Inverse folding.
């Protein structure tokens, strides 16, 4: 897929919303649905959701309240825009089973992970980010298993109740495992990031997954934006806006980076 942003385009990048299955317009612990309802991301011509929109996804054939609430909120948000924004999803580690049925329902396009785009004269690499957490060997083995098409087909062939039970067990096991791991190995590996810049021939990376929102600048002048996770109770959440004037970290609670401020695309 070849994507290019230019002229009057305005792109919004976000990730790690983790909408629970019980989310509703008036009871969303992430704070994302109210942000959509109030049109906080308009103007926007391209919306990129870089993984983990949902806390988990057990198949397109299920319709939990959180899914229905998101579909309604996205529709209302689109109606606020001057022209219908293009919407792009990327699989995260929580919603990797999100499929063509849901994409068609919301009028979205699926991006490969990673994916390079052209944006106002620079190349930008987009990713969920979990593939770069290479120090966490147990997670990488699990990631390879569940992203195998055969595994996914077998899982989706299970009855809905069996799928949900299996997901809850996997999540419980994952949380228990994380409690016994050093924080450092659950972050991206610096060598993996360096390799990603080199192989993609990009100077900007945008990703999520780690829940460590920030803006990083390396010795070579490459810029890495780490998107925030969404937790309204902790006043966390936001998006990265990119247009011809530069980039800006925005959200319901203001600038979510340590550095903050504007960064001209040409500076990278």
């Amino acid at each position: 897929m070849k994507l290019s942003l230019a002229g009057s385009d305005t792109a919004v990048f976000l990730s790690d919303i983790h909408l629970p299955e019980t989310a509703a317009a008036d009871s969303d612990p992430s704070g994302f649905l109210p942000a959509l309802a109030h049109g906080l991301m308009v103007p926007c011509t391209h919306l990129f959701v870089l993984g983990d929109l949902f806390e988990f996804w057990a198949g397109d054939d299920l319709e939990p309240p959180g899914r229905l609430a998101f579909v309604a909120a996205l529709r209302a948000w689109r109606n606020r825009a001057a022209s219908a924004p293009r919407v792009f999803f990327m699989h995260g580690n929580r919603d990797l089973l999100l499929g063509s049925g849901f994409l068609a329902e919301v009028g979205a396009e699926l991006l490969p992970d990673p994916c390079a785009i052209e944006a106002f004269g620079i190349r930008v690499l987009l990713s969920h980010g979990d593939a770069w957490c290479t120090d966490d060997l147990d997670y990488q083995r699990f990631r390879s298993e569940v992203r195998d098409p055969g595994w996914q087909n077998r899982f989706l062939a299970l009855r809905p109740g069996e799928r949900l039970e299996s997901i809850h067990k996997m999540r419980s096991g994952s949380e228990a495992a994380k409690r016994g791991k050093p924080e450092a190995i659950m972050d991206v590996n610096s060598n993996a990031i360096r390799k990603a810049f080199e192989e993609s021939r990009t100077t900007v990376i945008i990703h999520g997954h780690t829940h460590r929102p920030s803006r990083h600048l390396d010795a070579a002048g490459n810029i890495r934006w780490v998107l925030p996770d969404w937790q309204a109770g902790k006043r966390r959440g936001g998006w990265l806006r990119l247009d011809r004037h530069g980039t800006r970290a925005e959200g319901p609670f203001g600038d979510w980076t340590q550095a903050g401020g504007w960064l001209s695309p040409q500076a990278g």
